[in-house]
Write a structure and sequence with these properties.
The protein is 8% helix and 41% strand. The strands form 4 sheets. Strands 2, 4, 8, 10, 11 and 12 form a 6-stranded mixed β-sheet that branches. Strands 1-3-9-7 form a 4-stranded antiparallel β-sheet, with no helix packed on it. A hairpin with a 6-residue loop joins strand 5 and strand 6 (96-97). It has one domain (22-194): Immunoglobulin-like. The chain is elongated and about 60 Å long. It contains 3 helices and 14 strands. This is Spore coat protein U domain-containing protein. Residues 1-17 form the signal peptide. Keywords: Signal.
């Protein structure tokens, strides 16, 4: 082969997936969620009021199968991944840590069937919905889980990107347009207990046992 022909071959641009074969009118999705965690909640329980429904419909042209077929065929599902860093596992099944989450908190995602989503082979949160031509809907629920007592009150942004292996975005060619943005405010509630007398009226005792029934004491817990 002539040198000039070899040069042209090496200089030719490499074909890349355009990653713009899908679109969604629900993305980017944004919501604000306020939840609370009481001092009596144990690790592994979800924060009160933290469950957030997210339903996304995605439309894809048939071009995705030709351009992204090597990574998105074979029943590959839509997945969720952080905008930076990696998803990490916790001591609780299918509860994960996302970069930028405060200490002591994790995230759990439920699919349309109510099943807690697991990580796929590429360590992304698997929605269970395969990429296909035409319309497809991702019915999800996101909730926050208490991991331990290190959790602190505060507000933070949880950003998840919807894609097929970061190769075919759910809404156009720009990753940020395929984001689920959740602004989450977590409040800590301390529960206190006080002792209180029932103050029941004395009951007249029969003549053979001249004494009143003692009053009772019980705990009243207030959040």
């Amino acid at each position: 082969m002539a040198l000039w022909a070899l040069f042209l071959l090496l200089a030719a641009p490499v074909a890349h997936a355009t990653a713009d074969n899908c679109s969604s009118g629900q993305l980017p999705f944004s919501a604000s969620v306020t939840n609370s965690i009481t001092s009596t909640q144990v690790a592994g329980e979800s924060a009160n009021g933290s469950t957030t429904p997210v339903s996304i419909t995605i439309n894809c042209t048939s071009n995705w199968s030709a351009e992204e077929g090597t990574t998105c065929l074979n029943n590959t599902k839509w997945s969720l991944s952080p905008s930076a860093g990696n998803v990490t596992t916790t001591a609780f099944p299918n509860v994960f840590r996302i970069p930028n989450m405060p200490a002591g908190l994790g995230i759990q995602v439920f699919t349309g069937g109510g099943t807690a989503a697991a990580l796929n082979a590429n360590r992304r949160i698997d929605t269970g919905v395969p990429l296909q031509t035409g319309a497809q809907t991702l019915p999800l629920q996101v909730r926050i889980v208490k991991l331990d007592d290190s959790v602190a009150a505060g507000t933070y942004l949880l950003k998840l990107l919807v894609s097929c292996q970061d190769n075919e975005w759910a809404n156009g060619a720009v990753a940020a347009n395929s984001a689920i943005n959740l602004t989450i405010t977590t409040k800590l509630v301390t529960r206190t207990c006080v002792m209180s007398n029932a103050n029941l009226p004395a009951i007249a005792a029969p003549w053979w046992r001249p004494q009143a029934i003692p009053c009772f004491r019980f705990r009243i817990c207030r959040a």
